[in-house]
Amino acid sequence: MDLDATRPFADSLPGDPDLAQRMAADGYLCLRGLLDRDAVHAARDAIASVLADDDVLASATPASDLVFRGGEPPDRGVLERAHKRINTLDAFTALSEQPGIRAVMSVLLGDAVRTHARKICRVKYPHDSYDIVGPHQDFWYVKGAEETYTCWTPLTDTSAALGGLAVRPGPQSGGPTPHAQRADSRFHGVDDDGDPRAWAWSPMRVGDALVFHSLTVHAGLPNTSAHVRLSVDYRYQRAGAPMDPSHVRPHFE
Length: 253
Ligand SMILES: O=C(O)CCC(=O)C(=O)O
Known about the structure:
Layout: E1 11-12, H1 19-26, E2 28-31, H2 37-53, H3 76-86, H4 90-94, H5 99-109, E3 113-115, E4 120-124, H6 138-142, E5 148-154, E6 165-167, E7 180-181, E8 188-189, E9 209-213, E10 218-220, E11 229-238
Parallel strand pairs: 1-2
Antiparallel strand pairs: 2-9, 3-11, 4-11, 5-9, 5-11, 6-10, 7-8
The structure holds 2-oxoglutaric acid.
2-oxoglutaric acid is lined by residues 122, 124, 133, 138, 150, 152, 165, 218, 220, 231, 233.
């Protein structure tokens, strides 16, 4: 995707009175400064030290710089072991309950909100195209309640080279779309005509977050930098609404 041709995210501030209307119109909110930066850095450092233990980071630079050691991305066994350790990190799980996120979720979902146990840390190695999540709706993966919102937040500032997440804005009136296995990636996704003007993307800073509806089409972008891209995504729905069994267990368990 030509990021220069996308439109920038429409920014919102956590206290804006029209967050629910914006979500209904655009399918997403880009919330600048939603999360406490120290808490995000704590999660980044804890996860970076897991990756350093697996020798996937350059040894000459601090682990928190996330410089990739080069060569092929680690194999599935290493990834799985790392994710199981990441799932146990307090700094990773606690970030999902930051007051800023809770406040936005109570605007969108009311007072009784349930956080999915399946919290996902994305570890995106440079030039690993097979691991790119192309255009998709989270509902295809999440199932359960359509009224589910994802909060995606980068653990480092993002740039065009690091990629991040792009969103296809619009009201979510079309319902779930069938997904197909992609030939060039390990993920399922939806067709996209490839017109970057239909998409929104901007660089993000530590503390910024994207919150989007389970039917909003979005896509992970290629990482063409020399750094590992770290982000986390957490999901929320009304307590008591249906939840798929896969989402009551941690990722990779
Ligand atoms: O971070 C990424 O590359 C993709 C994340 C994603 O698709 C999601 O949070 O649903």
